[in-house]
Structure formats: structure tokens, C-alpha cells
Amino acid sequence: MKKLRMIASASIMLLVLVLVNFYIGLHTWVLVQDWLPGVPAAVFWPVFIIVAFAYMIAMIPWPQSVKPVARFFKVIGSYYLACMEFAIIFLPLTDLLHWVLKLMGYSLTLFTSEAGVTLLLMLAVFLIWGSRNAWSTIVRTHPIPIDKSIGTSTPLTIAVASDLHLGNIVGNRHLRKMVKEINNMHPDVILLAGDVLDDSIEPFIRNHMSDQMKQLKARHGVYAVLGNHEYYGGSISQYTELMSSIGIKVLQDEVLEVAGTYIVGRKDKTAESMEAGGRKSVASLLEGLDLSRPVIMMDHQPTGFDAAAQAGVDILLSGHTHRGQIAPNHWITKRLFELDWGYLRKDKLHVIVSSGYGTWGPPIRWASRSELIKLEVMLEGSKKYSDEILTAQTVLI
Questions:
Q1: Closest to 390 (Cα-Cα) out of 379, 380, 371, 375
Q2: For residues 168 and 198, what is the distance between their CA atoms, to the nearest angstrom?
Q3: Residue 24: strand, helix, or coil
Q4: Taking the mean position of all CA atoms in its chain, how far away is CA 187?
Q5: What is the spatial distance between Cα 142 and Cα 392, in angstroms, rounded to a whole number?
Q6: Can you list the pairs that 65-73 forms with residues at least 24 positions away whose Cβ atoms lie under 8 Å?
Q7: N or C end: fewer C-beta atoms under 10 angstroms in the chain?
Q8: What angle do CA 330, 335, 341 make, to 5 degrees?
């Protein structure tokens, strides 16, 4: 029954995708006919279909000899996804304007050409500004007071990065920048809150990205959790072994004591549907711990805040949402999650959800930015910060 529901959902999504792209294709064809009347439909439509479904084509398990072409298709398809979202927003508005002007009796002889030029200029601005938001990173600093002690009043500096999505789009260049900025924080601990991989581990290995990852330096180590994309990639065992070989521990429903603090790493929520054993509850993970010590938990998807607060977690770190990545998707994520981005205080629990460092699909962001998180955890005995000083500071890098 569950398999049938998945097939039905996938079929509906595919049908919607086909209809949306047919709508976009028709408008593009009208513009091509206006500007390049000699182009035959037999040429236009196959090219358009290949571009529109390039991302899906790239996901097919092609033979090794064809994979370089598949990687190119994934890049083309990624950028088309951004163009598709732009078209979904602005083409209906253009159609509405056309209809209103026609009702008002205006001459529409040049409408197609003028609208086409306007939309292409707007698309160029959308892509350029969105690319700037994706590659130009912000460091957000959160001072977090915790009424617990580890025997020192010195703040605990924790660097947090989520949703790197390392693969064929986000590569070594962006990764090197992250490593440099995190190391400049001189952190006590580095936490990677899931989706380090975009999906396949192949480009991570092929481009030797582990050579960059192992340059991350923290006094008390680097720790990570799995995200949904590690599960989608299907190479969790290989990934965790590779990360372990460079000194990064991937926590899967595990707790470690680090510098007098508990670091808790949950399996991603995807495990509930993709692993027979699912994942442990927060309460069972914290059972038997000395809760007079700080408890910092990573859970890739921002859910279960109440359970975390009741179990005694002090700081919950998540990502996953990208804050919608491209507006107006942030209106959707804001409705889907109790907190889709930023900071929330729930009883004694501090929740921080990052918009992520990398991108899924197109390297484009609107209404969100590539970000890294710097936590200054103020423990009992330190008077530097109070509960009222919780506004994040931002620094452009």
C-alpha cells in the first residue's frame, strides 16, 4: 500500500512537471517564432524538452563513459530549475497583463517582443543577484547563554555549517572558502548539521574534496550528522568511513562527551522511512546523561522542538530548509516548519536553523543567503551576555 502511494505521488508530480513545462515551452515557442521565424518546431521542441528535463536525465545511472556528459546535463538542468521557477511566477502575470490590455483595446502588435525583452532582462537580474546570494557568504554570530557549567566561564566557540551539498555544482572552490572562514573563528568544536553531500558521493571522491575537509581545525574535533541527501545518495557506509579517515566523526543516533559538553547526533528523519530500525527518540538518546552539563544536539530537519526541550536539550542545530532558497518558497517553508530559519527560544531550549552554506539544484538564492553559524555559548559564571542579548550579528565575507 505504501509503495502504491509513493508511485501515485511520483506520477502526479511528473504530470504536474510535464504540464508546467509545456506551458513554459508554449510561451518560449511564441517568442522564438517572433524573433527567429525560421526555426522549425521539429528542432525547437526536442531541444526544449532535453533542457527542461536535463536534471532528471542526469540522474539516470549512465555507464561510466557517459557520465561526463551527464554531469554537464546536471549543470544545465540545475540552472533551468531556477529559470522554471522564475517562469512560473512571471509568465502568468504576463498573460494577465496581455488579457487586460486586450480588454482595454490596446494594440498588441509588439507585445510579444517587448514582453520577451523585459522578461529576459528580469531573468538576467534574477540569476546574477541570486548567484551573488549563493556564493557570497554571511557569518551569523549567536551568543547563547546556558545556565550550566563545565568548570570554566570561558565561552565555548562552536562553528556550524549545514547543507554544503558538495557535488557537481558546489565544489572545492566554495569548500576552500568555508574551511578558511571556519578556521578563522578558532572554534572549540565544529559541527556539520547534515547534507554535506548533494546526493552521489562520486564527485566528492573524484574531486578529492576530503583533502579540503580534513583542513578543518577545532580544539575538540569535528562532528557531523547525516542529512536526507546522504540517504538519497545511498553511500552512507562509504561516506562515514571516508569522513572518519580524515578525522570527522559522523554521529548516527550517538552521543559523545566533548570538553565537558554532550554532543548528540541524530539520524536524519529520512531514516524513519528508509531504514528498518528507524531512529531513536531524543529521550532515549539522552537517557542516563548528566543533564547538569550542556547538551548540544544536531538534527538535520528542524522538527520535534517540544520533545527536545522536554528531554533536556540546551541547543538544537538544524538546516534542511535553505529558507526556501528561492523566493517565494520561504513562504512555504515558514508554514511547513515551526522554525524554518533563524533563532527560537522554547523554554530553556535554544533552536537555530541555518539557511545552509551550499545550494540544492541551481546555485541561486533569493530571500536567503549562504551562511555559516558561529555560536558563542556562554556558560554559568560568565556575565558577558544576558538573555536579552540574543540578536544575531552578521559579517559579510
A1: 375
A2: 8
A3: helix
A4: 23
A5: 5
A6: 67/202, 71/168, 71/203
A7: N
A8: 50
Where does 234-321 have alpha helices with state H? 236-245, 271-274, 282-286, 305-311
Flag whether pLDDT at 35 surpasses 90: yes
Could you tell me if 165 and 198 are in contact, meaning their C-beta atoms sit under 8 angstroms apart? yes
Q: Which long-range contacts (CB under 8 A, 24 or more apart) does 8-13 make?
A: none
Give the pLDDT score at 332: 95
The three-state secondary structure class of 152 is: coil
Distance of alpha carbon 254 from the chain centroid: 23
- Asked if residues 194 and 227 have their Cβ atoms less than 8 Å apart, the reply is yes
Strands 189-192 and 156-161: parallel
Phi, psi angle pair for 351, to nearest 5°? -110, 130
| HSE-CB for 261 with a 13 A CA cutoff | 27
| Locus of grid cell 528542524 | 302
For the chain, what is the mean pLDDT?
A: 93
Mention every residue, 6+ apart, whose C-beta is less than 8 A from residue 377: 144, 146, 155, 156, 157, 158, 294, 296, 315
Nearest to 203 by CA among 169, 254, 246, 162: 169
Q: Model's pTM, two decimal places?
A: 0.91
Residue 388 pLDDT grade (very low, low, confident, very high; cuts 50, 70, 90)? very low
The Cα 64–Cα 79 span in angstroms is 24
Instruction: Report residue 272 as a C-alpha cell.
Output: 524513519
pLDDT exceeds 50 at position 192: yes
Rounded to whole angstroms, the Cα distance separating 265 from 133 reads: 29
Q: Minimal CA–CA distance to 358: which of 373, 344, 369?
A: 369
Q: What is the dihedral of CA 129, 130, 132, 135, to 10 degrees?
A: 180
Would you call the peptide bond into 68 cis, given omega within 30 degrees of 0 as the criterion? no
Q: What is the DSSP letter of 253?
A: S
For the chain, list the domains and their CATH numbers: 2-133 (no CATH), 139-396 (3.60.21.10)
Tens digit of pLDDT for each residue in 126-181? 999 999 999 999 999 999 999 998 877 788 999 999 999 999 999 999 999 999 99
Give the span between the Cα atoms of 331 and 249, in whole angstroms: 35
- Please state which of the ranges 85-89, 202-206, 390-394 shows the lowest mean pLDDT: 390-394
The 10s digit of each residue's pLDDT in 51-106 is: 999 999 998 888 888 888 999 999 999 999 999 999 999 999 999 999 999 999 88
